[in-house]
Amino acid sequence: MGATKAEEFTVKDNRIAKYAKALAHPARVAILKLLINKRSCICGDIVDELPLSQSTVSQHLKELKAAGLIKGDIEGVKVCYCIDETEWNIAKNYITDLFSAYKAITGKCC
To answer: HEC string of 31-56?
Structure first.
């Protein structure tokens, strides 16, 4: 979405779209599940767990970090990634609000 069009939507809508984009690839979902289960992870461990190359995993980590869902700290020559709890909770609330807003239609819809 172009920058000029994004300005036409609310901050909340743009953030939901950012989270959805980050979640839109199964490799990124798998990375998040690994981080959730391990509580923290060194990038090399992630590569060992997934059928992807180091460079591909790095690209997915970059996307997740850009969305704010994860954070990383440099420890020597390695980067340790974990869930960014603050942003994670914001994403959870925004996405829950979106899905909760729908109320089942009692009649025929389509």
So the answer is: HHHHHHHHCCEEHHHHHHHCCCCHHH
Res 76: pLDDT: 74
- Cα–Cα distances in angstroms (integers) from residue 61 to residues 8, 48, 69, 89, in the given order: 29, 14, 10, 19
Give the integer Cα–Cα distance in Å for 98 and 100: 6
Cα–Cα distance for residue pair 102/92, rounded to 1 Å: 16
pLDDT per position as a tens digit, 84-96: 999 999 999 999 9
Query: Which is it for the CA torsion 56, 80, 63, 4, positive or negative?
Result: negative
Report which secondary-structure segment, H or E, holds 81: strand 78-83
